[in-house]
């Protein structure tokens, strides 16, 4: 019997309460696609990171704080991403996760879209978070996976990719030019999306397909 791939999920951090926490939607999306999610600790020594990378079949880099504003998360994710890339583990980045991968690889960010990149598109929607609010145009791996030229996505961010890292390839862009998805071509699976498929996978086949593609590459 084939075992479900173990997916290490980077934790969310509430500095005010000094509390590690998790949104169940990330875990539910992984489980729906056939993975076994494990919430990772916020702090780990290098030798512990080596054991975790050896144990896990893939990693989900979650959303949350702005890149650069939470030293605890930045330190953890720098260590983890470095080792996961070296071991060619499958990686999926969501929202902050995509932004972090881009910065780690040498790309840059818009620090605040409303002030630095004004647009008619609202990139930070209100509830319900599972409601799509704007279109993205697809190419590359996402277009091949979904078999579509464009899809509707939800959106919950005020930072975004400004300059795409050289090692990343564009997979989706919003009508206002904001990069919405990218991948590393020379790795087993390193994808990042700016939207939140974890909120939409129960009703949106495209979102579930992204999780399922990730889990397949973890096997």
Give a written overview of the molecule.
The structure is a single chain. The protein is α/β, with parallel strands linked by helices. It has one domain (6-218): Rossmann fold. It is 33% helix and 25% strand. It is built from eight helices and 13 strands. It has a nine-stranded mixed sheet with strand order 4-1-5-6-13-12-11-8-9, with helices on both faces. A hairpin with a 5-residue loop joins strand 12 and strand 13. The protein starts with 5 loop residues before the first strand and ends with a helix. The mean pLDDT is 97.
What does the secondary structure layout of this molecule look like, with pairings?
Layout: E1 6-9, E2 12-14, E3 19-21, H1 24-32, E4 36-39, H2 46-55, E5 58-61, H3 71-86, E6 90-94, H4 96-104, E7 108-110, H5 113-116, E8 134-138, H6 140-146, E9 150-153, E10 160-163, E11 168-173, E12 179-184, E13 190-193, H7 197-200, H8 205-218
Parallel strand pairs: 1-4, 1-5, 5-6, 6-13
Antiparallel strand pairs: 2-3, 7-10, 8-9, 8-11, 11-12, 12-13
Ranges with pLDDT <50 over ≥5 residues? none
> What are the secondary-structure elements, in order, as H or E?
EEEHEHEHEHEHEHEEEEEHH
Q: Spatial order of the strands in the main sheet?
A: 4-1-5-6-13-12-11-8-9
What is the CATH third-level topology name? Rossmann fold
Main beta sheet: 9 strands, mixed
Tally of alpha and pi helices: 8
If you average the pLDDT, what whole number results?
97
Structural class: alpha/beta
Overall number of structural domains: 1
Shape: globular
How large is the share of residues in beta strands? 25-35%
């Amino acid at each position: 019997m084939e075992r479900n791939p173990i997916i290490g999920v980077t934790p969310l951090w509430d500095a005010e309460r000094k509390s590690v926490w998790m949104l169940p939607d990330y875990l539910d999306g992984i489980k729906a696609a056939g993975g076994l999610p494990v919430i990772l600790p916020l702090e780990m020594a290098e030798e512990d990171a080596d054991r975790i990378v050896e144990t896990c079949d893939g990693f989900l880099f979650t959303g949350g704080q702005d890149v650069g504003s939470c030293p605890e998360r930045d330190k953890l994710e720098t260590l983890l991403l470095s080792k996961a890339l070296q071991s060619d583990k499958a990686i999926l980045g969501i929202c902050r996760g995509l932004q972090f991968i881009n910065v780690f690889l040498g790309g840059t960010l818009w620090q605040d879209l409303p002030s630095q990149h004004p647009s008619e598109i609202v990139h930070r929607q209100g509830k319900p978070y599972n409601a799509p609010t704007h279109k993205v145009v697809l190419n590359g791996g996402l277009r091949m996976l979904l078999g579509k030229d464009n899809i509707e996505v939800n959106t919950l961010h005020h930072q975004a990719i400004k300059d795409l890292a050289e090692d990343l390839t564009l997979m989706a862009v919003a009508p206002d030019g904001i990069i919405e998805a990218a991948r590393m071509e020379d790795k087993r699976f390193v994808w990042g999306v700016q939207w939140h498929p974890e909120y939409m996978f129960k009703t949106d086949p495209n979102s579930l397909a992204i999780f399922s593609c990730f889990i397949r590459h973890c096997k």
